[in-house]
Amino acid sequence: MKKLLTTLLITLISLSTYATHLMGGQIVATNIGGYDYEIQLTAYRDTIGIPMSSFALFEISRDSAGVMIPINTLSVLADSMSGGLVTGVSAAYGVEVYTYTDTITLPSDGYYTISWKDCCRNHAIVNMLNAGAEHFALSTSLTVDSLNPNSSPSYLSLPVAYLPSDTLWQYNPLPFDPDGDSLAWSLTAPLGDNGTVTGYQFLSDTALYSNATNPFALDSITGELSWDAKMQGNFVAAFLIEEYRNGVKIGEMRRDMQYIVVSDTSNYLPVVSNMMSFPTNTSGYPYVVISPSQNYSVSLLASDPNINDVVTLSAFGEPFNLQTSSPSFLTFSTGNGNEIEGIFSWTPNMLDVRLQPYLVVFRVSDGFYNFDYTVQIAVLLSSSVEEIGIKAISNNKIYDLLGRKYNDYKSLPMGVYIQDNKKYIKTQ
To answer: Where are the domains of the chain?
Structure first.
């Protein structure tokens, strides 16, 4: 049901039952035409607490001279709930996923923020003070322009909650923008009822929560999260994605997640044993360069030292969302214990050519622990394009990333170039 943003009296607030043990979530705003947007809240809760309310109350604010002014509220009924008990090695955990979705019509162009909050967080959270009394809050902001449609960024990867202590662990939420805008991601402090939660401590603090060799960190190139946790417990981290178009920030969105660190030396992480099958770039990242119409295929082997664990291997990322040339990923047992083989195969086309590499994540799981491997795949007309790139076009002169100047378009090497957010392909 579409809701026009006129004044609404929300009387259901007094009827809501506060949830407890809220674990995480995010808000995604998707443009569906003009000023019409689909708003979706995804919230995660552990099964120990009180169930979520049957509705979520969104607050819509608009920028006015640098100040966000609330203009309306929107009450949305829950449209789905999934999840349930997840059993682990020494305890039983449960995660439920709630979604709240509706469409709205914004009144005009401008910069808007959609926010939501509820009570309360898990009292067992270690890295904030009095967590059980803290509200859980989320927000997403975006520039609305009817002539230049814009949707908020999102994530292509579902959250994972459980990881072992004193072991290097990797997870990639896969930040993604449907409009092709540039994204920058970073760690931030989680929000509560009135801004940042009280007494929050970042998990990168090696004196408290991280072993020094691999502190809690977010890779600015791939978006991959890595952590060698030094103690068990419940911890919270928040992530900020900032969205840019033509060098101008046009929005941001948050994801807040709780991580449960388990101390159990008898359960090991599953692994992919042959990641060396991928070449690496000069920075040491797994990096593959392929051309349009060229088939690229690679075989990966995954297993778990715990021979009774059932291993699964999955692949996801932006290429799987392409309409004309999405890759395939097939898995099957090798017959060698719990080892499985996964075959990734992709033949991109000319429409997939771009300077920015695609991110593909291979996730191995034993049903409780997950471990992610991130690979960059560049689809280019020439392997030299990665080094050449384009830096600026001004005064009829063209400058590449190495500072070299070209007098005209004809003198450019074969490749792909970006100007004013438009893609140009030179084939000869």
So the answer is: 2-262, 271-379, 385-426
pTM for the predicted model, two decimal places? 0.81
Alpha-carbon distance of 23 to 46, in angstroms, equals 7
d(CA 428, CA 412) in angstroms, rounded, equals: 9
Question: SS3 of 342, please?
Answer: strand
CATH architecture, range 271-379: Sandwich (2.60)
Q: How far is 186 from 223, CA to CA, in rounded Å?
A: 9
Distance CA 292, CA 287 (A): 16
C-alpha–C-alpha distance, residues 406 and 369, integer Å: 52
Cβ atoms of 264 and 164 within 8 Å: the answer is: yes
Contact 118, 136 (CB under 8 A): yes
Cross-strand bridge partners of residue 64: 67
pLDDT tens per residue, range 108-139: 999 999 999 998 888 889 999 988 888 999 99
Q: Using one digit for the tens of pLDDT, what is the confidence trace for 354-384?
A: 878 999 999 999 988 999 999 999 998 764 4
In the chain, the N- to C-terminal Cα span, in Å, equals 52
d(C-alpha 405, C-alpha 11), whole Å:
64
Distance CA 182, CA 262 (A): 36
- The answer to whether 33 touches 62, Cβ cutoff 8 Å, is no
